[in-house]
Design brief:
The protein contains 9 helices and 13 strands. By secondary structure, it is of the alpha+beta class.
């Protein structure tokens, strides 16, 4: 008997007919097929070769093993309000957040999953813009969205759209970044200004009677971090300063490494617009969330090459050394002020700005 050669599939794209999402779009029937294929599969260019859509993505282990000796895996949910804001949207935020969580651990991001929970009544046009933003950001970061899920809930069961992204990456042999690695004498550096994302989100909310020209710093940092690690291979640790801002990252590293952290207020890059915005609302930019700021700790002898590499990258032009790791006051973060005094930079009990990511 002759072997049967399967014919390549020619999948026709189906189109969403309604202007808003309905519960039928989450019911598993033709309406759901139309939504998934028209909005998501077409944007992400998944299985353009006509291969069947399976319930899981399949990644080559051989390919992963050529890139490193450890698999990194992370997941995060995004509930930002509003969905679209100056400098980004929830889709861009979801990709950047997951890519950056991999990159700060030294991993090269490879692939993402994307699961969405959509509120009944959401405009399909808005959903389509966000899906295209996810695709564009993933392409810019050099990763692929390879699998996902779609759920639709009744009005009031969620606020328009929630996204959960997971990511896998590979860490090369010999690289061991970690929050407990800081040592006295090391230097703390950041790649750019603080507080842009928090200020942009707050200004975009309807209930705020203030405005600012600042846009979110939302960006994938894997390219920048790769350059940093090449220039400063002794880098101890890297963290992205998201919720809780710089203050949260510094306190976490001080406690985990059992060291003190001393920073200089005048050395911290903050845009004048963000300073003014915070002064007006009684906020501290050290606690505002960021989506494109990496905080790194490097040995003192590698600070020069590290800063040079960061400043040569578009996302690190304003990189700065902002402080040092000390043996004094283990677990504490202190800041030297321009007036010759010092202040404790402690953790806040809550978040000054909920739902920023």
């Amino acid at each position: 008997m002759n072997a049967i050669t399967p014919l390549p599939l020619r999948r026709s794209r189906h189109r969403v007919q309604q202007p808003t999402v309905t519960l039928a779009h989450g019911g598993g029937g033709s309406a759901m097929r139309d939504l998934v294929e028209d909005v998501f599969i077409s944007a992400f260019a998944v299985h353009d070769d006509g291969a069947p859509l399976e319930d899981q993505a399949r990644l080559s282990l051989a390919d992963l093993m050529t890139r490193g000796d450890r698999l990194a895996f992370t997941t995060d949910s995004f509930v930002v309000d509003p969905l679209e804001f100056a400098g980004g949207d929830i889709g861009k935020l979801a990709v950047c957040g997951t890519v950056n969580d991999l990159a700060v651990g030294g991993a090269v991001p490879i692939a993402l999953s994307c699961a969405v929970v959509i509120e009944e009544g959401m405009a399909v046009a808005t959903l389509r813009r966000i899906a295209l933003s996810i695709a564009a950001t993933a392409k810019a970061a050099g990763v692929r969205v390879v699998t996902g899920d779609t759920k639709v809930v009744a009005r009031g069961a969620c606020d328009k759209l929630f996204i959960t992204t997971s990511g896998v990456g590979v860490i090369r042999d010999g690289l061991h970044l970690g929050i407990a690695n800081a040592r006295p004498g090391d230097v703390v550096i950041v790649n750019g200004p603080l507080g842009d994302h928090g200020a942009a989100i707050m200004a975009a909310r309807d209930e705020m009677a203030v405005s600012t020209s600042v846009a979110s710093d939302c960006a994938p940092l894997n390219g920048l971090i790769g350059d940093l690690l090449t220039a400063a291979p002794g880098t101890r640790l890297i963290r992205d300063a998201t919720r809780g801002g710089l203050a949260a990252v510094l306190n976490e590293m001080a406690e985990a490494s059992n060291v003190g952290v001393r920073i200089t207020e005048s050395a911290i890059p903050i845009r004048p617009e963000v300073h003014g915005f915070c002064d007006l609302l009684g906020l501290d930019p050290l606690y505002l969330g960021n989506e494109g700021v990496a905080v790194a700790v490097v040995p003192a002898e590698q600070v020069g090459p590290a800063l040079a590499a960061l400043r040569a990258h578009p996302l690190g032009v304003l990189a700065a050394a902002i402080g040092t790791i000390t043996a004094e006051r283990p677990g504490r973060v202190v800041m030297d002020t321009p007036f010759g005094g010092t202040r404790i930079v402690d953790l806040l009990v809550g978040d000054p700005l909920p739902r920023i990511c």
